[in-house]
Structure to design on (146 residues):
């Protein structure tokens, strides 16, 4: 029977680590207009999601139990409008013995989930469903170790 364990990294050397992840959320054109004109009742969804994404990166070992706790040195979360909605990009930096790609993935995913939460009242149809809204294309686009 296989056991579950955290990987032993005590012999690995401390190195600069950086990872960038991206993801997208599809939103209706009406919702995009609301964001651009500042007409979202809960506040600026991108500012809320940036803070949530940073918090998500810091909490990665809590939601992904076999991740090593890291002292993060920088976490940036940014948004840009794309034709179908918003694209989120999260970059995480640490100096440590293990990579930060999971922290970048959790940051971008948490940010996108918060966008959905802040905007869900505008994305629902008459039956309370989300026929258009979708989070997709979450991936690591860059990893640096030196």
């Amino acid at each position: 029977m296989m056991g579950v364990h955290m990987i032993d990294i005590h012999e690995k050397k401390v190195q600069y680590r950086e990872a960038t992840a991206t993801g997208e959320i599809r939103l209706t054109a009406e919702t995009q207009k609301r964001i651009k004109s500042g007409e979202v009742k809960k506040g600026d969804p991108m500012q809320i999601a940036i803070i949530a994404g940073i918090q998500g990166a810091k909490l990665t070992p809590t939601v992904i139990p076999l991740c090593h706790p890291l002292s993060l040195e920088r976490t940036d979360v940014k948004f840009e409008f794309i034709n179908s909605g918003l694209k989120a990009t999260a970059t995480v930096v640490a100096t440590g013995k293990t990579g930060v790609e999971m922290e970048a993935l959790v940051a971008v995913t948490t940010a996108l989930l918060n966008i959905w939460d802040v905007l869900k009242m505008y994305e629902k149809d008459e039956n309370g469903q989300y026929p258009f809204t979708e989070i997709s294309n979450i991936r690591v686009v860059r990893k640096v170790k030196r």
Notes: Strands lie at 15-26, 72-82, 85-96, 134-145. Residues 10 and 118 are 42 Å apart (CA to CA). The longest helix spans residues 101-123. The chain has a mean pLDDT of 97.
